[in-house]
UniProtKB/TrEMBL annotation, chain B:
Its cofactor is FAD. InterPro entries: DHS-like_NAD/FAD-binding_dom, ETF_a/b_N, ETF_a/FixB, ETF_asu_C, Rossmann-like_a/b/a_fold. FAD binds at R207, G263, I264, S265, G266, A267, I268, Q269, H270, N284. GO terms for molecular function: electron transfer activity; flavin adenine dinucleotide binding. Residues 3-184 form the Electron transfer flavoprotein alpha/beta-subunit N-terminal domain. GO terms for biological process: fatty acid beta-oxidation using acyl-CoA dehydrogenase. This is Electron transfer flavoprotein subunit alpha/FixB family protein. Keywords: Electron transport, FAD, Flavoprotein, Transport. Gene3D superfamilies: HUPs, TPP-binding domain. The keyword Secreted does not apply. It comes from Salinimicrobium profundisediminis.
Length: 275, 322
């Protein structure tokens, strides 16, 4: 009798229609990965015998690709309801960057308290946060402009067994279904998949003009929003950046007179051998 | 123990990057005292790979893999690596290769170095030189895992012929339903246009060109050279050109043989993204434009006069040279 009762409740809960209603009534939980990187105008220098990035005089910002993703997350929140948390793996120095994301409109921030040593190490920290938080959608940048690894989002997806779309330049979610546009070499393709989903994103998911500059109210509110510090999971790295090097200075330019374009063609053909 | 290389093809034909990664893999294999095995998907003329040092080609022929699918391809490459006992896997840095490499790295618990620009400095431990800070610097990365994945930057190594008798073997990886959880519903790709990713030459225009109506001369020059067209960020932000043409630190990277910048000032973010190109030409009417410090050849003057003239002269040059 009891067993029958429970099984019918169970059947009811498993009914696809009920699941559908549940999914659309429940807010989507979004996690946006925020990498803390030198401003694009930064001059890049190294210290300690070219083994460390020299942060002296460098201003740090939200990685541009992540900022596009964060803005798309704000639209989900405003248009169809969603909670948006941001995460960074890094030391206390990244907190102003997380606060900026809160000022833009994220609900809460998580900082995993450990230096970002390599791609897999960071991905494992984010995977843990993602699993603990039960996120439906994880947004990361296609790449960070400092390490240029281009690996964290794909690794997070692989680790948690979520679907993954890289170079994502368009995303719509309805219930459990996602329609994504991926930039491919020379064009784009439209993909359909299900949540949970991880995307590696870039400009195009929103446009430059859609980006938000935090206003006073946002900045005030951000101070009161939670910024939770969690301790890292213990895991091995796979790689180590042992040394840095700056590109060799460029030799002098050869100027060609605007009335002597044959000379330019001659140089490109005989000297540079590129045409 | 062979070095495994993922060789990309399109409509059955290998792409140039396939031959470049094969050439590189041969270099790595020589350092390790082993051979190169390639894996190809629905490609016909596998023998072409032998020219670049490949000894064995694992040919996957599967209707379901006709369209690129990162998860399924990664799964197949993983199985090939296990079958061959490969400890080093080489992939290109095309959009597709960058999509599958981190998935493959997780599956094989492999260290992955992206944007690699040269043969390893040493193999024990394996250490590679790669670009970082969007071409503003290089870093040397040591991979400490048993299996390692190297993502080779386009045009960093070039083609090296190394005639080898390549044997072919059919390879049928076992794929699961989970490999097909993402479905391509449509592809939108200009069939006859050279892409920035594949181009040997890129012709790029900036705000100095004043408006989208003036791009005809850029396209003419590009067509004459068989080049792809690109643009600076403000040009795409203003909608003069599609976003897919935006190059630079926050746009697409350009690693062409020849990059021609027309009416582009040479802001640090722009230069970062295009500096991996071998030869840079700048056309700008302001002799103080920063790009002149970063280019190999320059013409000071009005682009509206220079570009059409240059195109005419190039047409004559091409006619005389063919
Ligand atoms: C976070 C961030 C990221 C960025 N990322 C990128 C990026 O990825 N890529 C990028 O390109 N920019 C990027 N930028 C923008 C960058 O800072 C510059 O603003 C931009 O590159 C300038 O574009 P431009 O050279 O086309 O225009 P301008 O700087 O306006 O230069 C136009 C040039 O055209 C020349 N000119 C004018 N008329 C003529 C003529 N008749 N003939 C010949 N020359 C002429 C002028 O002398 C001038 O040098 C970024 C900026 C920020 C803040
Ligand atoms: N330390 C980090 N903390 C949080 N997110 C990160 C971190 N490093 C990388 N990411 C995310 O992963 C993306 C790709 O980074 P990368 O693989 O380093 O190129 C970034 O755009 C971020 O969204």
């Amino acid at each position: 009798m009891h067993a029958q009762y429970f099984s019918s409740v169970f059947m009811y809960l498993r009914n696809p229609f009920i699941i559908f209603i549940y999914k659309i009534l429940r807010y989507m939980k979004i996690l946006v990965c925020i990498s803390h990187v030198p401003d694009t105008t930064s001059k890049i220098n190294f210290s300690e015998g070219d083994t460390k990035f020299d942060t002296a005089g460098v201003q740090f910002v939200i990685n541009p690709n992540d900022e596009f993703g964060l803005t798309r997350a704000m639209w989900f929140k405003e248009k169809q309801g969603a909670t948006v948390d941001v995460v960074n793996v890094g030391g206390t120095e990244t907190e102003p960057t997380l606060r900026k994301a809160l000022a833009i409109g994220a609900d809460s921030a998580i900082r995993v308290n450990t230096p970002a040593t390599d791609g897999i190490y960071v991905a494992k920290q984010i995977a843990k946060v993602a699993q603990d938080g039960g996120y439906d959608l994880i947004i990361a940048g296609r790449e960070s402009i400092d390490y240029n690894g281009g690996m964290v989002p794909g690794m997070v997806a692989g680790l948690i067994g979520a679907n993954f779309v890289n170079t994502c330049i368009g995303l719509e979610v309805e219930g459990n279904e996602a329609t994504a546009i991926r930039e491919i070499d020379g064009g784009k393709e439209t993909l359909k998949t299900n949540l949970p989903l991880v995307i590696g994103t870039q400009k195009g998911i929103v446009q430059e003009s859609d980006l938000r500059i935090p206003n006073m109210r946002g900045i005030m509110q951000a101070r009161k929003k939670p910024l939770n510090v969690v301790e890292p999971v213990d895991t091995a790295t796979h790689s180590e950046a042992v040394k840095f090097e700056k590109p060799k200075p460029k030799g002098d330019i050869k100027l060609v007179d605007a009335d002597n374009l044959d000379e330019l063609i001659n140089l490109l053909h005989n000297e540079a051998k590129v045409i | 123990m062979s070095v495994l290389v993922y060789t990309e093809s399109e409509e059955g034909q290998f792409k140039k990057t396939a031959f470049e990664v094969a050439s590189y893999a041969k270099g790595v294999a020589d350092m390790l005292g082993t051979e190169v095995t390639a894996i190809s998907f629905n490609a016909q003329s596998a023998g072409d790979l032998g020219k670049y040092g490949v000894s064995k080609v694992l040919k996957v022929n599967d209707e379901k893999l006709q369209k690129f699918n990162a998860k399924a391809y990664a799964d197949a490459i993983k199985q090939a690596a296990e079958k061959e006992g490969s400890k080093v896997i080489v992939v290109s840095q095309s959009a597709n290769a960058k999509y599958l490499a981190p998935l493959l790295a997780v599956q094989l618990e492999a260290g992955y170095a992206s944007n690699v620009v040269a043969l390893p400095e040493g193999t024990d431990p394996l250490q590679v030189k790669r670009t970082a800070f969007t071409n503003k610097a290089f870093n040397f990365t040591k991979l400490s895992t048993d299996v390692k994945i190297i993502g080779l930057s386009k045009n960093a190594f070039g083609l090296k012929e190394n005639q080898t008798d390549a044997t072919e073997e059919d390879f049928s990886p076992s794929l699961s339903e989970g490999d097909f959880a993402i479905n391509v519903v449509s592809v939108d790709k200009a069939a006859d246009k050279v892409t920035i990713a594949d181009a040997e030459i890129v012709v790029s225009g900036g705000r100095g060109l004043k408006g989208p109506e003036n791009w005809g001369m850029v396209e003419d020059l590009a067509e004459t050279l068989g080049a792809a067209t690109a643009c600076s960020k403000p040009v795409s932000d203003m909608g003069w050109r599609p976003h897919s043409e935006h190059v630079g630190q926050t746009g697409k990277p350009v690693a062409a043989n020849l990059y021609i910048a027309i009416g582009i000032s040479g802001a640090i973010q722009h230069l970062a993204g295009v500096s991996a190109s071998k030869t840079k030409v700048v056309i700008n009417n302001d002799p103080e434009a920063p790009f002149f410090k970063a280019a190999d050849y320059g013409v000071v003057g009005d682009a509206f006069e220079i570009v059409p003239k240059l195109t005419e002269k190039l047409k004559e040059f091409k006619a005389g040279n063919s």
